[in-house]
């Protein structure tokens, strides 16, 4: 079974698999987006686990979950030593700019895609 979003992942302990077809094709001229990783100040490592980011049954992605005293959650996604996504889920904001996933789609170190917490995303091919 494949769970699709970071919210579902955190509930089900299975990593989200997601597709992003159409996102880039609708973007028009190639202006590279760049998203800044969440600030870990005030957060402590809460849990680490491995998860399946592409639905093949192998847990290739290491997740690190960080929490602060407010219960806000940051998760890092690392495969083959490359950190390719971050999520931020704030407890007091069910939606909006303080809840997101950012992904480095091509392993160049720049987080160039952003998703909502309920959106689908998957481990980029460039980590393999
Ligand atoms: Ca996998
Ligand atoms: Ca990138």
Low-confidence stretches: 11-29
**Cα radius of gyration in angstroms:** 14 Å
Tell the overall outline.
globular
What's the story with the biggest beta sheet?
6 strands, antiparallel
Query: What's the tally of helices?
Result: 1
Residues in helix, %: under 10%
List the keywords:
globular, mainly beta, binds calcium ion, 128 residues, 6 strands, 1 helix
Q: What would you note in describing this structure?
A:
This protein has a six-stranded antiparallel sheet, with no helix packed on it. It has one domain. By secondary structure, it is mainly beta. The chain is globular. 31% of the residues are buried. The two termini are 22 Å apart. The chain has one helix at residues 6-12, and strands at residues 44-51, 61-67, 73-79, 82-89, 99-103, 113-115. Mean pLDDT is 81; it is low at 11-29. The chain has one helix and six strands. One calcium ion binds at residues 52-54, 56, 58, 60.
Please give the structural blueprint.
Blueprint: H1 6-12, E1 44-51, E2 61-67, E3 73-79, E4 82-89, E5 99-103, E6 113-115
Antiparallel strand pairs: 1-2, 2-3, 3-4, 4-5, 5-6
The structure holds calcium ion (2 copies).
One calcium ion binds next to loops.
Quick overview:
The chain has one helix at residues 6-12, and strands at 44-51, 61-67, 73-79, 82-89, 99-103, 113-115.
